[in-house]
Amino acid sequence: MDCESADGLDESGLAGSRCYSAQTHCSNGQKSKRPSSPGPHPVKTTCVDSHPQNPNVALCLSISPGKDVSSTNDVEMLSPDSPISKTVLIDSSAHKDQDDSTCAEDFEAQVVKSQQFFNNSESGSFGKKRLQVVSMGTEDAEVAECSGSSNMSQDFIRSQPDEIFESISFASHDPEQRWLGTPIDELNRMPQCAPPLSQLKALANHTVTVRTDLLREGEVPVPYPTKFKDVWDDMSVKMPSALQDGGGVQSRWDLIHNALRGGFKSSLDLRDAILRYNTTHAKKWDFTALNLLCTECLEHCEVQQLFQAILPAMVDLALSAPCLCTMPIPLLKSRVNHSLTLSQEQIACLLANAFFCTFPRRNSRKSEYGNYPEINFYRLFEGSSQRKIEKLKTLLCYFRRVTQTKPKGLVTFTRQILNKAPNWESCQTQLTRLHITCEGTIEDNGYGMLQVDFANRFVGGGVTGHGLVQEEIRFVINPELIVSRLFTEALEYNECLIITGTEQYSKYTGYAESYKWKESYTDETPRDDWQRRCTEIVAIDALKYRHFLEQFLPEKMTRELNKAYCGFFRSNANNIHLSAVATGNWGCGAFGGDTRLKALIQMMAAAEAGRDVAYFTFGDLQLMRDVHKMHNFLTDRQVTVGQLYSLLNQYSDTVCRNCHTARPDVSLYNFIYEKISSPATANASEPDKDSGISSVMSDFC
C-alpha cells in the first residue's frame, strides 16, 4: 500500500487516503441515508458455519476510495446462539437434548469461539502481519456472549396432539423469506414521528453544559460557563483538571500536563508517560496490546502518523479539559431521575482523558467509584488479545476523526427510573405490530427507532476490557456511548439509561473473536432541534441465569418485563410520536436467556408502552418463523398482555415447577398454543377449576 507521512492532521489520514471526508449534515425531517431495510428488498445473505481467518488482520486507520472493502463475503453480525446450520424438526418422537451444555458456569474458563463470518478477501485488510496470540482472560466473562448451543431445543415437540402441530406448521413459509410481519418501512422512525422539541434549557433534573442561546446548526457548541468551575465533591465527576483534590494539596494536573507534553516516539514512551501520574499501578498495568498494535499490526507509515499526528492531537484535546468541560459533570446516581447534555466536542475531550488514563480514583473497584464502570482505558492496553487490537483500531479511527474535524452536535444521557410498574395481570393492551427478520442489524436497519443495547448493569460491559459482543461493539462504533461510564452508576432493577444523539464513526465485520474494524463511517443521520443525531439507544440489563428453568420463575419474568418496560415507556407521550423498538435476542447467550421467552417479554413491554417492534434474530431463521407465528396466533385471537402474562405464570407453575430435568418436555410456545386452542377452553362457558386452566382462559371462549 502507498503511505504518506504527515506532519499534521490533514486529509491524508494515516495512509494518505481521502476517505475521511467531512461529515454530511441532513436537515431536520430528512430521512437519513441508511441502508435500505430488509422489507421490500431483502438483502441476500449466505449463512455458513465458518470461514478461514483472513491472514491480514491489521487494518489501517483510513481507507482508500480505490479499495473496495465490501464484498459478497461480508455478513451481518449474528447472535452467538444462532443455529445457522440447524433445522428444527417438528416431530413427536423422542430426541436428544441438543443444549445440554450451558455457558453460564464454565464460560469464564473459555475463549469465545463464535462463528467465523469475516471477509476472505484481501481488500478489507491493510496491515502486514497476523497476530496469532489469543487472550485466555476471564475478566469480562460476565458481559460476554456465548457461542455455544442455542435455545432452540426447548421448541422440539415431544408429545403434543396432531392438531397442535397443524396450528404451528412451518410448511407454508417461503424458505427464501428473510422477514415476516409488518414491512419495516411502515413502523415509526425518528425524526418523522417526533413531536416538536421545546427549547433546550437547564432544569433541576437536566444539566446542560453548553450555551443554549448560542446553539446553531452546523456550529460547534460553546461551553458553559465561560470559566472552569473547580468542584471536588460526591455529587460530581472528579476531574483530572481539578486544582484541588479535597485535601488542600495541588492536583496531578501539572504532572499530567508535563508527562503528555513530553511527546511520544513509540508505545513505550506512551506507556511511560501514563505511568508517571499513575505510579501506584506501574508494576501492575500491562501495555502489551498497545505495543502489539504499534509493532505488529500497523504499517510503518501508519505508526508514524499515529505518533506524529493523531496522538499529539489527542493530547491537545485531553489537556483542553479546563476550557471545554467548564461545568461540573453530575453523577447519574441510582434512584435519581436526571439528564445530562454534553457537546460532542466535550465528550471527545473526556474520552481523550480516558485514553490517557487521567481520571483520578477510577482505577480500583475498592474506591469510592466502586459501583461505577471503569472509564480509564488501562485494561484495553493489556494482554495480547486480538479483540483489543481491533477495538483500539476502531477507537483510534474515532479520535482521528474528531481531532481532524470538530464535531458539532450534542448528546443527552438520561437515567430513567420506573417508580410504578404496570399491574401486568390486568393489562388490557393487545400486542402491537411486529416486523421480524433474520437479516440486518439494529444499528443499520433500525435507524430512527429506539435501539436496544443488551446492557450490563455497568453500562458498556467489557468495552474497556476483553468483551466484544453486542453492547461492546455498539460502544466502540459509537464511542460517545463510552463516556456514560464516567458518570453512570450501576443500573438498579427498575432503571435504564437512554442516550440520544451519538454518532457512528466506524463499520465492522464479525462478532466477538471474529470482530474486525472495517473502515471509517460517515453518519448522515439527521439532527433534531437540539442538534442531536436522531439515534436513541436504551441500555437495559437482563438477568443472568445459572439454570435454564430459573428464568421462568414468576418474579424473574416480572423483573424482565419491568426492565424492558422501563426502557420503552415515555411519560406523557402520545403513542403516535413514539418510534418502534429495534431489538433482538436480549439477555440470551452467556446470560442464559431463552430467545422465545425474551421475544414475548419484549413484545409485551413494547405493547404496554405503545410501541411497535422491529426484531432482529441475527441470522436465526427458525426463531424468526417461531416468533412471527406466535405473534400472529396471539393477535388473531386478540390475546391481551394481561392474559399472556397469566399464561406465562401458568407455564411456570404447571410445567416448570414440576420439571426434574434441565429443560421441560413441553416448550413454552406449545404450552400457549395448547392452552388457547384447547377444546376444553374453546367450549367452556366457565373455567373448569379441575382442568388446570386458569380463569384467564375463559376470556377466549
Automatic annotation (TrEMBL):
Active site residues of this protein: D453, E471, E472
Enzyme Commission no: 3.2.1.143
Binding site for substrate: N456, Q470, Y511
Uppermost EC category: hydrolase
Keyword Hydrolase: yes
Keywords assigned by UniProt, alphabetized: Hydrolase
Region named Disordered: 23-50, 681-701
Occurrences of domain PARG catalytic Macro (ranges): 422-624
Parts of the chain that traverse the membrane: none
One Pfam family in the UniProt entry: PARG_cat_C
Biased composition (Polar residues): 692-701
An annotated GO BP: carbohydrate metabolic process
GO cellular component, one term: nucleus
InterPro entries: PARG_cat_C (IPR046372), PARG_helical (IPR048362), Poly_GlycHdrlase (IPR007724)
GO molecular function: poly(ADP-ribose) glycohydrolase activity
UniProt domain PARG helical: residue ranges: 302-415
Family to which the UniProt record says this protein belongs: Belongs to the poly(ADP-ribose) glycohydrolase family.
Protein name per the record: poly(ADP-ribose) glycohydrolase
Gene that this polypeptide is encoded by: parga
